[in-house]
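Treating backbone geometry as a discrete language has practical consequences that deserve illustration. The amino acid sequence and the backbone structure tokens for this protein are reproduced below.
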Amino acid sequence: MTNHVLLDNVTHKHLKINRAWRPNQGYDVNLARVFPVELGALQAEYPLFFIRNVDSGHFETVALLGFEDSENLYLGDDQWLARAVPMTIERQPFLIGFQDQAGGPDQTPVIHVDMDHPSISESEGTPVFLPHGGEGPLLEHINTLLASIHAGHQASQDFSRLLVGLDLIESLDLEVEFNDGSRHALKGLYTINEERLRALNADSLATLHEKGYLQHIYMLLASLPKLAVLIERKNRLIEAAGSA
């Protein structure tokens, strides 16, 4: 359940965020939406793919965090098991909302907070607001994250359009086998077709390079060996559960 409300320094003057990177603390997802601006940092830690947004039709980049629904293999004992955290994970329990402007059709982006998120506290954690009502360092960082996420939605759509136009995205059906003999099918994922990428003409490659998309493509392809690392992490959990 979620309970999204508009954040303000009066109602939420005592609000604290007590973040715990462990299961059942609000971060139990096996896929995290990611954006082009963070691919360079994330490719060294996660296998990165595309999924197709059924509402918009666009392809969106995601980090694979686990194999089962709600399985996040990067959650440790209060520690995130990677050097970089996807922005859509790190921004929680905050999110962008939109507020109508008086006398005009435009909407202003504002910060909402999920008051039902497990990290919410009034007694433990990092204060959101300073004693005099100003924004604390945590909220300043959240503001930066949310602004990047807001801009990232348009950047992702632009990236998707060009990749689709060049016919570079292909579906990827994988079946993973773990050490105990169990298997798991990864469906609904997409990746870059490397053969079509190599066959692009000079003009198409120049367009990708000028827009910075060629670097994004290389980051996505460079991340794929991290799937083996994720499989090994799952195998260690299976072995630990079997010996318990």
